[in-house]
Amino acid sequence: MSNSKNKVVEPPREVTIAVMGATGVGKSSFINMASQSNLKEGRSLHSCTQDVQIANQFELDGITVTIIDTPGFDDTSRSDSDILKLIAAHLEASYKSGYILSGIIYMHRISDPRMTGINVRNFSMFLKLCGDSTLKNVIICTTMWDTVSPEEGADRELELETDFFKPVLDMQGHLVRHSPRTSSTAQDIIRRIIKNQPGVLQIQKELVDDNLGIDETTAGTELNKELLEQAAKHREEMRKVEEDRERAIKENNKMMEDILTKERQKLKDEAERKEREVAEMKEDYIAQKNSVETKLRELEEKARADQARVEADYQRKMENLMVELGKANMSKTEEEVKKLKEEIAELKKKQGQKKGKCVIQ
Ligand SMILES: Nc1nc2c(ncn2[C@@H]2O[C@H](COP(=O)(O)OP(=O)(O)OP(=O)(O)O)[C@@H](O)[C@H]2O)c(=O)[nH]1
Ligand SMILES: [Mg+2]
Hints:
binds magnesium ion; elongated; disordered C terminus; 361 residues; 3 domains; binds guanosine-5'-triphosphate; seven-stranded mixed sheet; alpha/beta; single chain; 11% strand; 10 helices; Rossmann fold
């Protein structure tokens, strides 16, 4: 006899997974390998993925998988707050539409000899987006194993396990290798996620359930704190530069005065830019969210129209085949009737596979 305590919770039939990590770690190429998609991959030092993008849905062990690709927080062309607003707006919209992530893959290059400021910033932002309760659904996936010796890679992996990525591993998250770099290894990594119980990320809870502004979320508060600290540092440097500039004026050193005037302006602009980012974060986020929601609505409408077209096409083809079959019973050979029946069965099968495929995240 079964009771509710022993009841097995069925894994979902459709899962959504997000992939995050610094620029150039191999997020898009991993997703392409897992899902046979064609997301653009980077060729240079500049950030490649500029927007949140969704890979082709694919079937894995009977489960429909959707993977979301994201830009890294160290984007070479946009600020960290722009990236936070972009990712948060998508996460908020997908949660509102009822999609809960079954897992998050955080990618890291095993070839990075040490943890740079960029790596630290990216990972710390990632932890603040997730919150402790979803870390059990996190997989840290290391890439670029073909560019290091096995010993070097294993040493770094051990160091990462016991130090940098410990907060995730302590909460039952996992550390895996994308090695060898094949579709089948990528899909094995996805397999580890599809049986998870989906979990709402901290940023989604804060924005949707608690109705907080982006600047009040854990990630937003932390980012604003960092930006204000950086702005204060620039202003402090500005004061020092100003003292030197006044000295140069007194000494009639025109060349030094010009250099210091330019330096002072640079620091002022930088401080103001960061202060502006903080001041405008909330308003900018609302605009970003509206734009993402509009885009998603348009995609949803397009998907519905496509679905309706497919249905209409199916009905038309089916009607034609049925008319043919009606005639065939009188005038066609047994072989021709058999062929028509096979065509009808094939059409029905195709239609069944197409149903439920136009999911919008
Ligand atoms: N040798 C090697 N190259 C890799 C590996 N993974 C990715 N690459 C290459 O690294 C480059 C960057 O990969 P992307 O998948 O575009 O990286 P990304 O994380 O999506 O980068 P952004 O979109 O800029 O955030 C591409 O040329 C990939 O082919 C790997 O394991 N080994
Ligand atoms: Mg990319």
